[in-house]
Amino acid sequence: MLLKSLALSSFRNHPKASFEFSNKTTFIVGPNTSGKTNLLESISYLTTGKSFKGAKDEDVVKKGEGVVKIKGETSDVELEVLMVAGSSEQERVRKKYLVNGVSKSRINFSGNLTSIIFSPSDLDIITGSPHLRREFLDAVLEQSDKDYRYASSAYVKALRQRNALLDLARGTGQRNEKQFDYWDTLLINTGSIVTQKREEFIEFINKAKKDIFDFIVTYDKSVISEARLLQYKDAELSSAVTLVGPHRDDFAVSMFDNATNATSDVKSFGSRGQQRLVILQLKLLQLDFIEKTLGHRPLLLLDDIFSELDGGHIKLVTEMIDKQQSIVTTTHREFIGSKLKGSVIELKKDGKV
Fold this sequence. Notes:
The chain is 42% helix and 23% strand. The chain is an alpha/beta fold. It has a six-stranded antiparallel β-sheet with strand order 2-1-4-5-6-7. Helix 5 (130-144) packs across helix 6 (146-172) and helix 6 crosses helix 9 (233-239).
């Protein structure tokens, strides 16, 4: 599926803007603060219903600015996200998802357009917190697997409720076991699905051919079960949070040493260059996984990465671009180079085209 056009209203520094994209590659050229990343962020709302930057809706919708509109026309459907600020500081942003003008839940909206984003901050997937590695898993599975979307959404809601019960139990010194039984069962059932789907994706990564850099991923899963919840019962009451389950998952990436035939952790022992190669390979495998699962290549979004990579890495990235529709942001036209072809959209400092 191709993204043909995008229209924004009151989104970040784009009060009113529209863009048309090539079926192959579109380059977004502009200085810093011109809104290049914001444009890609709006596309992420069309693919997953949320920001790839982890931004809260309240950060996007400013009070008194009315309605934020993000509208995308694809080769198959018309997608729209509406966000309305609450009337008070306490009222949350109301969000509406539309497919061909018909209202949908986020679960049924996500996946109509698929995309994978690659930005300089992605190196943090290797070096940063486990939360970023879980987001890496979610980024591909929420788009490619409806069962995962349902299970993940239900799990998060149940986790929130169970943590509220733990906080209440700690404050009152009393624990209502009947209430916990309901949420425990829901967490175990949905958490098991999340774990299974993550295992399948990591197995795909480990079995896939890796042309850029060879490594193996070890899934450090936090299994949730009746036995483990019972095991951590007292500790959970003391901390007022659920201590086991896929919200505690992590994974490690290990590279091979051909001389010793051993493996070493890329996070601790890999050079900066090796870590970048791992990220490039992981991004390519995300693209391949969605193609294998859904039968089409997702849209590739590259956010100002040319300024962060050396010549060798840039060559590897440019080889990725032509395999699917790509939208590439950069600060300078010269980063595009003579070998790269595509349409060009230039943004001014104020975000205007």
